From TrEMBL:
One of its GO terms (molecular function) is FAD binding. Residues 745-755 have a biased composition (Basic and acidic residues). Pfam families: FAD_binding_3 (PF01494), Oxidored_FMN (PF00724). Residues 732-755 are annotated as: Disordered. This is Salicylyl-CoA 5-hydroxylase. Residues 383-716 form the NADH:flavin oxidoreductase/NADH oxidase N-terminal domain. Residues 131-319 form the FAD-binding domain. Gene3D superfamilies: 3.30.9.20, Aldolase class I, FAD/NAD(P)-binding domain.
């Protein structure tokens, strides 16, 4: 096999060494445009997981690395003059030049042809003359660009400028320093990589960089100025450059990683922000996976398909974590007012890879100090601390999210709703929310949706609230009021979500006459008189909800339903006082909110659910969401329930663990209003992490409560918590201990007899 490798960085070199070691008969050539001792950057951090893979695949490389590693456990975070240290993290780093030298030596010893100061031939020629072409030519990959129509790259440029530098002394820990200057916030990321050297990255938002005058300085003057700004953590030492330049991070994602016998590896295929230190790690792991797939599969074609199938989900997960970390640092200014320990905890858990429980294992003392500062009583996880909205005190921070059940007849909640909501109330959550309860028969999504437009329906809800208050004391129950708008008159979810009814349809109304999908019914644009009628329908439903005994009311302004349809520019094309600018698009939802607040008891809280992004070009975005939340808060909303999407059918959500939380975080820390985070929050560890970091006040969980109605009780049991934040119903107390399982171990042999 003839193998061409374009790019002599760690990923390309390690791939060459592995492939040659596994089959010495392979003819492997590496083209590198730079000289052997040229490199960019300084130190490289590798995880224990990556090192374990290297040790298993090539003990000689591992042994050479081991001799040069600098190791440490601590992370230091300095915030407004106070340094906090968290231990138990475990890092290993070495100089990038040293890493390349080790890989050069290994490749030469194995017989790899290394061609430095050499531009690789054109990719098409390489593909024609070699059995395999590995494109490891970095973020600006010429190979990727030559086949962009196949790989379909998507490159996102972000909002911060950074420069990669070094200093001539070793930090004792991974170091994060914050400088609040007259021009804005700047940050230093630093870590040791040799007994006499540390990597230093200086980062700040583009507007801060320009305001501070860096755009007008050459690199030496920039470096000198950075050294003065961060003189204290640098102990007066100078900063050094290595072909350093101010740049903006670019996230690279490719739809496909291979084409015929060409495959992308490392930064050519994907990038992950330096704040989680995964660039070299991912490239080395790519090389390991590619080599393994070539060994395991019968052909190059099958091997490349297997490689892509194996690595894509891993890389996507890392990129989600890196994106969360990157955005945290982009928005660092939001968190500067946090208490010092909470700020440190927030930074440590920013990527969601380190969590509350994980950090407790690494450094229990630090985590307990954060909990004390937050106000957690001894032995109380953050999720079981109380939270107050007006006169309603929730005993814990868990919310059963609104979930449409499509099980009503003529809008009437029945036995199913009693059992469904009653079971989840008995399950220990602080707040149980109904599904979207419709304010009119025409405002239903499906024929199975519940309503509050008749006295009989109100009595049906009263039966449920009475049960919750009597049988699950301490659990609050809230109602979510809404109107389907253009998304109404559809089949039950399991019969065809968002599909129009085959018969028995009712007319739809919306902000503008735009169907949700091409096959959807076209709604009528609401007239002024109809707007007045709708406002009255919401008010009447709210009055009935109060009489029915609900503790909290949420106005549904999300997911493309009627009020959401006014907020999004994609669904509101009106030219009157209710369309156009965001202020005008907000007008009718705010009128409805004010009307409801006028009849809803003063002591009971009201929340608003919004879609913080439409996940579609030209739609509502994060900045709009902040202004929408600000407007509702100014009108008296006690909390904002922050969801996303479902506004337009052509949306492209970026799914992932707790993927909607950053929007709640931004609203909370910009507007100062309490928020409810929702969206793929599935573990009690995530709830604790988000609450303690100050990214949300409450966490709403949907599917986990379908899987386990007693999710909150079980979360308490699994954390050995038995306090005021959760109460087992008396009939269930015997089940408050986790049941024993069957025996899973087997008796070990006493003797081993040789035959």
């Amino acid at each position: 096999m003839r193998v061409a490798i374009v790019g002599g960085g760690p990923g390309g070199l390690y791939a060459a060494a592995l492939l040659k070691r596994l089959d010495p008969a392979r003819e492997i050539t590496v083209w590198e445009r730079n000289a052997p001792d040229d490199t960019f950057g300084f130190g490289v951090v590798l995880s224990d997981e990556t090192l374990g893979g290297i040790e298993h695949a090539d003990p000689q490389v591992y042994a050479a690395l081991q001799r040069h590693f600098t190791r440490w456990d601590d992370i230091d975070i300095t915030h407004r003059g106070t340094r906090h240290t968290s231990g138990g993290h475990g890092f290993a780093a070495l100089g990038r030049k040293r890493l390349l030298e080790i890989l050069h030596n290994r490749c030469r010893a194995l017989g790899v042809d290394l061609r430095f100061d050499s531009e690789a031939p054109y990719p098409a020629w390489l593909a024609e003359t070699h059995d395999l072409v590995i494109a490891a030519d970095g973020v600006h990959s010429t190979t990727r660009e030559a086949y962009a129509h196949v790989f379909r790259p998507h490159v996102t440029t972000h909002h911060c400028r950074y420069i990669w530098l070094a200093t001539d002394f070793p930090f004792e820990a991974f170091r994060f320093e914050i400088a609040e200057t007259e021009h804005g916030v700047m940050q230093l990321h630093g870590y040791p990589y040799a007994p006499d050297a540390s990597t230093v990255i200086i980062e700040m938002r583009e507007e801060v960089w320009r305001a501070a005058g860096f755009a007008d300085l050459d690199v030496p003057d920039s470096i000198e100025r950075c050294a003065k700004i961060f003189a204290d953590p640098l102990r007066g030492h100078p900063l050094h450059s290595n072909k350093s330049a101010w740049t903006t991070f670019r996230t690279v994602v490719n739809e496909h990683w291979s084409h015929e016998n060409i495959v992308l590896l490392g930064d050519a295929a994907h990038t992950a922000h330096f704040s989680i230190g995964s660039g070299t790690k991912l490239a080395v792991e790519d090389a390991l996976a590619l080599a393994a797939c070539l060994e395991e599969q019968p052909s190059v074609e099958r091997a490349l398909a297997a490689y892509e199938e194996e690595r894509k989900p891993v890389v996507a997960s890392t990129q989600r974590a890196a994106r969360a970390s990157l955005e945290w640092f982009e928005n660092l200014g939001l968190y500067l007012g946090q208490p010092p320990r909470q700020f440190a905890f927030n930074l440590l858990t920013r990527s969601r890879r380190v969590t509350h429980d994980n950090l407790r294992l690494r450094d229990a003392r630090f985590t307990e100090s954060v909990e004390r500062e937050f106000g957690c009583p001894p032995g109380t996880p953050p999720m079981f601390t109380p939270f107050r909205l007006r006169d309603l005190t929730l005993r814990n921070r868990v919310v059963v999210s609104p979930m449409d059940m499509y099980s009503a007849v003529d809008g009437l909640p029945g036995d199913f709703h009693l059992v469904h909501l009653g079971a989840r109330a008995l399950g220990g959550a602080g707040l149980v929310m109904t599904e979207m309860v419709c304010v009119s028969a025409e405002g239903r999504i499906t024929p199975g949706c519940t309503g509050l437009y008749t006295g009989e329906q109100a009595e049906g809800w009263r039966r449920i609230t009475d049960f919750v208050h009597a049988q699950a004391p301490g659990t609050a129950i809230g109602v979510q009021l809404g109107h389907s708008g253009r998304k109404g008159s559809t089949k039950l979810m399991w019969e065809g979500i968002d599909e129009p009814l085959p018969d028995g349809n009712w007319p739809l109304v919306a902000a503008s006459p735009i169907p949700y999908r091409p096959d959807s019914q076209t709604p009528s644009e609401l007239t002024r008189d109809q707007l007045n009628d709708l406002r009255e329908q919401f008010t009447s439903a709210a009055w009935r909800a109060a009489r029915a005994g609900f503790d909290l009311l949420e106005l549904h302004c999300a997911h493309g339903y009627l009020l959401s349809g006014f907020l999004s520019p994609l669904t509101n094309h009106r030219t009157d006082a209710y369309g156009g600018s965001l202020d005008k698009r907000l007008r009718f939802p705010l009128e409805v909110f004010d009307a409801i607040r006028g009849v809803w008891p003063e002591e009971r809280p009201m929340t608003v659910r919004i879609s913080a992004t439409d996940w579609a070009e030209g739609g509502t975005g994060a900045e709009d969401a902040v202004e929408i939340a600000r407007a509702f808060a100014a009108h008296g909303a006690d909390a904002i329930d922050v969801s996303t999407g479902q506004v337009v059918a052509e949306e492209r959500p970026e799914y992932g663990r707790s993927y909607q939380t950053p929007y709640a975080d931004r609203i909370r820390n910009t507007v100062g209003v309490p928020v409810i985070a929702v969206g793929a929050i599935s573990s009690w560890d995530d709830v604790n992490s988000l609450i303690l970091a100050g990214r949300t006040d409450l966490c709403a969980l949907a599917r986990p409560h379908l899987y386990d109605p007693h999710w909150t009780l079980h979360a308490a049991a699994e954390q050995s918590y038995d306090g005021l934040g959760v109460t087992w119903p008396a009939p269930y107390r015997a089940g408050s201990r986790r049941p024993q399982t069957g025996r899973t171990d087997a008796p070990k042999p006493r003797l081993t007899l040789e035959t």
